[in-house]
Design goal:
The protein is of the alpha/beta class and 162 residues long. The protein has a single domain, classed as Rossmann fold, CATH 3.40.50. Helix content is 33%, strand content 21%. The chain contains 5 helices and 6 strands, in the order βαββαβαβαβα. A 6-stranded mixed beta sheet has the order 2-3-1-4-5-6, with helices on both faces. It starts with a strand and ends with a helix. The mean pLDDT is 94. The protein binds guanosine-5'-diphosphate and magnesium ion. Magnesium ion is lined by residues 15-16, 36-37. This is GTPase Der.
C-alpha cells in the first residue's frame, strides 16, 4: 500500500490549499471561513513516480467541544494512521498558543513531523518563517501553498520522510 502523509494544523493556515498543491489538482475544498474540512479525506498523489496518499484534515484545536472536538479527534486519528505528518503553520501570523498545543500533541504521536511555514508568498516573508524555530520541531520549511513557491522542495522532503 502507498505510504500515508497527514496534513494537520489549526484552522485556516492553508492545509487544504497545500493538499491541492501536493496532489497537483484542486480537489480539497479551500475556504476563507475556517472549519470546512470536517473529516479526514484521503487523496492519491504521485511525485517523481512514487505514489503516496495525502490526508487532508480539519482544523485542530485543543480542549475543543462538540463539533470542533469531533474535527480534532479526526485529525488525531489521521495522524495515528500516517507514516509522516506535515504540520502547517501560518508564517504571517507566527506561532500561536494553539500551534504550541498542537506541537505537544504531535510529540505524543511519535510520528516524523515536517514543519511547514505557509503563506510565505515572497522572499520578504522568509524572516517570519525563521521565527518558527521556536516551536522546537526543527527547521521550518517556508512555502506558499497558494503560489507553489518551494513546493517541489517540500515534495522531495516529504518523499524522503515517507
Ligand atoms: P485550511 O483551513 O487550513 O484548510 O486552509 P485553506 O486551505 O482553506 O485556506 C484558508 C485561506 O488561506 C484561504 O483563503 C486560502 O486562499 C489562504 N491561503 C492558503 N495558502 C496560502 C498561501 O500560501 N498564501 C496566502 N497568501 N494565502 C493562502
Ligand atoms: Mg481545509
Amino acid at each position: 500500500p502507498a505510504p500515508i502523509l497527514a496534513v494537520v494544523g489549526r484552522p485556516n493556515v492553508g492545509k487544504s490549499t497545500l493538499v491541492n498543491r501536493l496532489i497537483g489538482r484542486r480537489q480539497a475544498v479551500v475556504e476563507d471561513v475556517p472549519g470546512v474540512t470536517r473529516d479526514r479525506v484521503p487523496y492519491d498523489a504521485n511525485w517523481n513516480g512514487r505514489r503516496f496518499t495525502v490526508v487532508d484534515t480539519g482544523g485542530w484545536e485543543p480542549d475543543a467541544k462538540d463539533r470542533a472536538a469531533a474535527i480534532a479527534a479526526q485529525a488525531e486519528a489521521a495522524i495515528a494512521t500516517a507514516d509522516a505528518v506535515v504540520f502547517v503553520v501560518d508564517a504571517t501570523v507566527g506561532a500561536t498558543d494553539v500551534d504550541e498545543a498542537a506541537v505537544k500533541m504531535l510529540r505524543r504521536s511519535h510520528k516524523p513531523v515536517i514543519l511547514v511555514a505557509n503563506k510565505v508568498d515572497n522572499a520578504a516573508l522568509e524572516n517570519e518563517a525563521h521565527g518558527l524555530w521556536s516551536l522546537g520541531l526543527g527547521e521550518p520549511h517556508p512555502i506558499s501553498a497558494l503560489h507553489g513557491r518551494n513546493s517541489g522542495d517540500l515534495l522531495d522532503l516529504i518523499l524522503a520522510a515517507l
